[in-house]
Amino acid sequence: MPATVLIVDDDPAFRALASRLLADHGFVIVGEVDSVVDALRTARRVRPSAVLVDVELPDGDGFTLARALVALSWRPRVLLTSTYPGVGSTDEVRRSGAQAFVHKGDLPRAPLRRLLGAE
Predict the structure, then answer these.
(1) What is the Cβ-side half-sphere exposure of residue 113, based on CA atoms within 13 angstroms?
(2) Which residues of 99-109 are buried (b: 16+ CB within 10 A; e: fewer)?
């Protein structure tokens, strides 16, 4: 069964790009949302195996969202991303429970299947 991914980003153009990129890597996209509130609501409904999360969202931050997501009963993997390379320290990413932080520009070259649990 292919890994399922929820994409959380407030930029619709990036969500569309990430959706195509992840689908090309064999992931099934189960939702695209633009806020923390919608991410939690949708995650509980569709139970993705992984979540791609923008660090800066209009109603909160991705680090706090990552902590909430990995605390869900099925413990989805979380990959944080941003256009700002220095937005979070390695310790902050680790404390959030996320697998890693990948700059948005580096996503096409990132080991997505490993980071999002498809291997």
Answers:
(1) 7
(2) bbbbebeebee
